[in-house]
Amino acid sequence: MGTSQAGANPKLATIKALLAKAEDSATPEAEAELARTRAMEMMAKYGVDEALLSDGQPSRDAIVTRHVDLPNPWSMPRARLMYFIAEAVGCQPIHIGARGAGVRRVKIVGYESDVQRAEILYASLLLQMFNGLNAQVVPYGVRSARAWRNSWQIGFIVRVTDRLKATEEAARAAAGAETSAAGRSGELVLAARDAMVQAAFKAENPSVRTQRGSYSGNGYGAGAAAGDRADIGGTRRVGAATAGALAA
């Protein structure tokens, strides 16, 4: 699926419109929640549908490698968020590291439709995370406000992407009995795609070992609670301030 095709895809266009409605401060809260709920349901189903439709047609949805540069402020939390979202939607990411001038790079290997899904979700959840962070009051007595804010973001990222994984897994489970364009079961198609992504990643990065870290910190619990409330579906909005007000 080329870039022009992606831009014209009616399903993606609908998902983006729903997310835009949900993020608009003029949208009533009840409508925003409904829009986000529907957007997330459609996003997960879109990923499965693309896998089934593209089975046996590698040119329709090929494996690609994307390099995403994440700038300051908060380049490391941005990189974590991008990494875990990509992982949740079936891609294999790797954090390349600092690229100078406060920029970090995440490399993503995955099917193009899944990489696109990761990018769309990242844009929405990044805004929610920054809005939520900007609304926080650092507790009295905290030695480092920056460290507290960093741990808050880690808590948000871990919890919200765990929820995203659960949504994706539910959609995959529901598709297990469906049949692809090539006549294979949905379960077999999705397993084969996972294996192909892993093989492509290992071919490009033969010496890399992937590992998911565990995190803690004084702000972690508050951030995790905000992640529980993040608008992946049927939840309340996190914060209302703009990301531009954040300090680095």
UniProtKB/TrEMBL annotation:
DUF7168 domain ranges (all copies): 77-185
Domain DUF2786: 12-50
Annotated InterPro entries: DUF2786, DUF7168
Highest rank taxon of the organism: Bacteria
Pfam families per record: DUF2786 (PF10979), DUF7168 (PF23771)
Protein name per UniProt: DUF2786 domain-containing protein
Organism name: Streptomyces roseirectus
